[in-house]
Amino acid sequence: MAQKPSIPKGTRDFSPAETMRRGYIFDTVKSVFRLFGYAPLETPSMENLSTLLGKYGDEGDKLLFKILNSGDYSAGLDAEEIRTASKICEKGLRYDLTVPFARYVVQHQSEIAFPFKRYQIQPVWRADRPQKGRYREFYQCDVDVIGSHSLLSEVELIDIVRRVFDKLRISVTLKMNNRKILYGIAQTIGHADKMIDITVAIDKLDKIGIDNVKCELRERGIGDEAIAALEPILELSGDNNAKLARLREIIGSSETGMAGVEEMQTIFDHAERLGIGLPIELDLSLARGLNYYTGAIFEVKANDFQIGSICGGGRYDDLTGIFGMPGMSGVGISFGADRIYDVMAGLGLFPDEVDCSTRVMFANLGEEEQAASLALLGELRDAGIAAEIYPDNGKMKKQMEYANRRAIPLVVIIGSQELAEREATLKDMRSGKQRKVPFDRLAETLAGL
Question: For a designed S-S bond to 407, which of 136, 319, 356, 430 qualifies (C-beta 3.0 to 4.6 A apart)?
Answer without folding.
Answer: 356
